[in-house]
Amino acid sequence: MFCEKAMELVRELHRAPEGQLPAFNEDGLRQVLEEMKALYEQNQSDVNEVKSGGQSDLIPTIKFRHCSLLRNRRCAVAYLYDRLLRIRALRWEYGSVLPNALRFHMSAEEMEWFNRYKKSLATYMRSLGGDEGLDITQDMKPPKSLYIEVRCLKDYGEFEVDDGTSVLLKKNSQHFLPRWKCEQLVRQGILEHVLS
Amino acid sequence: MTEELDLTGQDSDAGSEEVVLTPAELIERLEQAWMNEKFAPELLESKSEIVECVMEQLDHMEENLRRAKKGDLKVSIHRMEMERIRYVLSSYLRCRLMKIEKFFPHILEKEKTPHEGELSSLSPEELVFAKQYMANTETYLKNVALKHMPPNLQTVDLLRSVPKPDLDSYVFLRVKERQENILVEPETDEQRDYVIDLEEGSQHLIRYKTIAPLVASGAVQLI
Fold first, then answer.
1. pTM score of the predicted model
2. Is A136 helix (H, G, I), strand (E, B) or coil?
3. Which residue of B79, B136, B156 is in closest CB contact with A113?
4. Is residue A189 domain-shared with residue A122, that is, in the same domain?
5. Does the CB of A183 have a partner CB in chain B at under 8 Å?
6. Tens-of-pLDDT digits for all 196 residues of chain A?
7. CATH number at residue A164
8. What ipTM was estimated for this complex?
């Protein structure tokens, strides 16, 4: 049946839970495009036959193929667009530098889209007034307290706090640090908020 | 509170309003704009003057804190306040960006035709962001898929494919200014439209479309 491959692409994304980005199915997309090409060429020749010979019993087949073409396009564009939305969410979750595991799942063009999105977002945030603008990817949750207890999960090195003193973040060390400084590190998995 | 730190009332000299707002009033306006934006299904009017003033306010507070004595208890309290304000402001701007990204073809289409007396729903920077987002996405789809498709299928009408905001969704609101004779349209064919009055201070659950202009004018507050 036509559009099988296109449906498979959509199902693949439907199965992946929100926030997860499966590997880019280049093969699948290529097959959908090839099927579209074949359907279109068949339609072209049939349309010519109808125009010259007047064989109107080909018309239902032409219409059917056209519907399959539209469905293929809809599934393909839905697949690509949904992936873009997931990639966009990655910028808000992980920051500007994506973990390597995720980068391997993205195609080169998706990476380009991501870079352009990053840049556009950065320009917008910088324009928000003040000297450096406002980083709205921070402060994702309402602040509960000024300082939080954090435990270091991985070796990170020196970390500078507001009044100039620096803290050495070694694995398993615990610190009492200002919340707004740690937020990004907590999201990246380097620090862990200790709730005792 | 902020008066104690030697902060005089800020003028909102940005924008066409010539109202002098105290810092407390400014933050209240920010919170109202934030709640309205969170609960409205569509993108609301851009409140850039409030954003600018709040940013200025935060800068002033930061300055004052830097000059203040270290270890003073007031410093912690004011820092907490700054954090809270920054959270509300960031959340407000994030909410707007999300709606812009979600409904970008419709929002940009609306911007093309200027309406008389209606303020733009996008700040100039948001407009730039929206246009870049649209161009970025269109170019991507064209290069990866559309240009490899048969010639008569190479353009996708984004206005038809991207869903519009659901203006019929229900919202909670509190009435700030008394309204009379609001026409409520029927949902099904069996119902008829009827007229209601909104008393000041009352709370309602109503379709957004019915009261959309009241949100814009400030007569009701979404909660």
1. 0.84
2. coil
3. B136
4. no
5. no
6. 889 999 999 999 999 988 889 999 999 999 999 999 999 999 999 888 888 887 778 888 999 999 999 999 999 999 999 999 999 998 998 888 888 888 999 999 999 999 999 999 999 999 887 677 888 888 888 887 778 888 888 888 787 776 667 788 888 888 888 777 777 778 777 888 877 6
7. 3.40.5
8. 0.83
Which residues does B76 contact at the CB level (< 8 Å), separation at least 6?
A146
The number of residues in chain A equals 196
Give yes or no: residues A45 and A101 share one domain: yes
Domain annotation covers residue A64: yes
Range of the domain at B194: 166-222
Mutation target vs B (from A79, A128, A176, A181; most B CBs, 10 A cutoff): A128
Q: Contact B49/B14 with Cβ under 8 angstroms?
A: yes
Choose among B56, B79, B150: nearest Cβ to A69. Answer: B150
- Closest listed residue to residue B182, CA positions, set B147, B133, B215, B137: B215
CB contact under 8 A, A136 and B94: yes
Query: Does residue B97 sit in the same domain as residue B185?
Result: no
Tally of CA atoms within 13 A in the half-sphere of A21 that contains its CB: 26
CB pairs under 8 A between A and B: 104
